């Protein structure tokens, strides 16, 4: 039995489809976990959400867990409370807005946010919005804890507030966490502490903290980590793939496995 964990997708439908096809996953026994941030930035956000919904609802694909990321939370905060952070250009919401509403998220719409709110609320399929609302903040199995951003010290996710699980970028967690292995995304691994970055693999392991958000860019891979085997599967924007077996910085819990 294995768990396959995929980092931040951000609308990269082609890479996600290719990645799922290359996984040697036994759908009768293995679990697939996505760490959130399905939306924003990429070329086909509605397609990613539709594909993941199909993975969850189609019995042929086995157990599929999808977590909520801070980008899903920003969208919900905009829809429910009028919070404007989701509209900021740096968030990458223009792709989500444009692909659902079929019009550009202009500066005019950002300034006239009531109009933008009405348009995205009308354009989002009910099934997609309900799916986003249902997303849990963490998952746990015998191998690890799985969260979008990180933990508050050694606290269990059920004892940690949602904002921390979705948003934290705590250097102390990255460098000194020694609890049950925790797999997280949110912070691209090139921005994590240098000691712990695993060279060409692009992921991060320090003690029990394992970061697998390998970035969003013209050459950035979308990454999946298989536990407890510590095998890595990656797909790249140009279509090539890579697999690795992690043999350095192995968390203590996995050495005997």
Question: What can you see in these coordinates?
Answer:
It is built from ten helices and eleven strands. It has a six-stranded mixed sheet with strand order 3-2-1-9-10-11. Strands 4-5-6-8-7 form a five-stranded mixed sheet. It is globular. It starts with a strand and ends with a helix. By secondary structure, the protein is of the alpha/beta class.
Number of individual domains: 1
String of helices and strands: EHEHEHHHHHEEHHEEEEEEH
Largest sheet: 6 strands, mixed
Mean pLDDT: 94
End-to-end distance: 12 Å
CATH architecture: 4-Layer Sandwich
> Number of DSSP strands?
11
- Which shape, going by the Cα principal axes? globular
What is the CATH homology-level superfamily?
Answer: Metallo-dependent phosphatases
Q: pLDDT below 50 for ≥5 consecutive residues: which ranges?
A: none
Q: Count of DSSP helices? A: 10
Q: Which CATH class is shown? A: Alpha Beta
Q: How much helix is in the residues?
A: 25-40%
- CATH fold naming: Purple Acid Phosphatase, chain A, domain 2
Radius of gyration from the CA trace? 18 Å
Given helix and strand content, the structural type is: alpha/beta
With strands numbered from the N-terminus, the spatial order across the biggest sheet is 3-2-1-9-10-11
Strand content: 15-25%
């Amino acid at each position: 039995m294995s768990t396959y964990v995929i980092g931040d997708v951000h609308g990269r439908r082609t890479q996600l489809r290719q990645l799922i096809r290359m996984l040697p996953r036994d759908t009768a026994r293995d679990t697939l976990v996505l760490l959130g941030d399905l939306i924003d930035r990429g070329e086909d956000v509605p397609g990613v959400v539709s594909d993941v919904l199909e993975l969850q609802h189609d019995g042929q694909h086995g157990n599929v867990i999808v977590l909520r990321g801070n980008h899903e939370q920003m969208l919900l905060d905009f829809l429910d409370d009028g919070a404007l952070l989701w509209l900021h250009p740096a968030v990458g919401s223009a792709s989500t807005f444009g692909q659902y509403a079929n019009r550009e998220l202009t500066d005019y719409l950002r300034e006239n946010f009531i109009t933008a709110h009405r348009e995205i609320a009308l354009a989002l399929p009910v099934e997609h919005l309900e799916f986003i609302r249902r997303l849990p903040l963490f998952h746990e199995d015998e191998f690890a804890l799985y969260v979008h951003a990180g933990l508050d010290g050694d606290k269990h996710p059920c004892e940690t507030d949602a904002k921390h699980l979705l948003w934290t970028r705590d250097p102390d967690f990255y460098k000194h966490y020694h609890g049950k292995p925790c797999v997280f995304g949110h912070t691209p691994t090139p921005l994590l502490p240098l000691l712990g970055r695993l060279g060409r693999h692009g992921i991060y392991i320090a003690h029990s903290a394992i970061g697998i958000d390998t970035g969003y860019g013209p050459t950035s891979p979308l990454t999946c980590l298989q536990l407890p085997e510590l095998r890595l599967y990656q797909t790249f924007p140009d279509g090539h793939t890579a697999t690795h077996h992690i043999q350095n910085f192995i968390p203590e819990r996995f050495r005997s496995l």
